[in-house]
Write a structure and sequence with these properties.
- Helices cover about 60% and strands about 5% of the residues.
- By secondary structure, it is mainly alpha-helical.
- The chain has a 3-stranded mixed beta sheet with strand order 1-3-2.
- It starts with a helix and ends in a 5-residue tail after the last helix.
- The protein has one domain.
- One of its GO terms (biological process) is proteolysis involved in protein catabolic process.
- Belongs to the peptidase M48 family.
- This is Peptidase family M48.
- Keywords: Hydrolase, Metal-binding, Metalloprotease, Protease, Signal, Zinc.
Length: about 240
């Protein structure tokens, strides 16, 4: 009976783990999103163009095709948006809109800073997160972590505030446990998507040479940049050799 009561108490603490999960997530959707950028006939635009609109025109249909090939059970129609809030740092993210449709977003700072090859690799990376179901898998890990943290707190007789903090900590640890693996998985599949769209992922990967290296931090959300560069290079070598990815 003591265990059952503690478990029920721990379950009541889980909703608050959303705060920890939001902090642990690798890509967080902003509160405001602009309308989709003026891409014109985005899926039939000239493939010889340059700039963000041209990148999207090439990457979007390829990402959708690979989505249909690998995960036909998903909604594979991507919506592309720009976060035009002033002062936002270079960032890209994936999420779902109010109707549950897959959405890929870029801040204007990212669009200004990255070249076409880099934008293509980043686009592929975010699309890959969606195809791999990383958000759902991270939520599951966070829920498990919150349950464990809350259960241990309840069994120890901790007060409500302490138990809630431990549940939040458990959620954050759970969400971060696989985040580096998810990032590398998205890098690999994102490389394939960019490659199939006709971009050079090795050139795109130079973005990581300019970006601050997070290092190999314990429970960090992103892997070291050298690891990402090596994985992208291996993936391209396999693609060039015609090996299965």
């Amino acid at each position: 009976m003591m265990y059952t009561s503690a478990l029920r108490r721990a379950l009541r603490l889980i909703p608050a783990m959303a705060v920890a999960l939001a902090l642990a997530a690798c890509d967080v959707a902003p509160a405001h999103l602009a309308s989709p950028p003026p891409l014109g006939a985005r899926d039939t635009a000239s493939r010889s163009g340059t700039g963000f609109a041209a990148v999207v025109a090439r990457m979007k249909p390829v990402s959708e095709q690979i989505c249909r090939e690998r995960t036909p059970q998903l909604d594979c129609t991507f919506i592309v948006v720009v976060d035009d809030r002033a002062g936002q740092p270079p960032n890209a993210f994936h999420t779902r809109d109010a109707q549950g449709r897959p959405l890929i977003g870029f801040t204007t700072a990212m669009i200004r800073e990255a070249n076409d090859e880099e934008l293509a690799l980043i686009f592929g990376h975010e699309a890959a997160h969606y195809l791999a179901g990383h958000q759902a898998r991270m939520r599951e890990s966070a829920t498990t972590g919150a349950l464990v943290g809350g259960l241990l707190a309840s069994l120890s007789g901790a007060d409500q505030a302490t138990a809630q903090r431990l549940a939040n900590i458990g959620a954050g640890v759970g969400a971060r446990s696989y985040s580096k693996d998810f990032e590398l998985e998205a890098d690999r599949l994102g490389t394939v998507i960019a490659w199939r769209a006709g971009f050079d992922p090795l050139v795109g990967a130079q973005f990581f040479r300019r970006s601050p290296d997070p290092g190999n931090q314990f429970l960090g959300t992103h892997p070291p940049n050298p690891d990402r560069l090596q994985l992208i290079a291996r993936t391209v070598a396999n693609l060039e050799a015609g090996l299965p990815i």
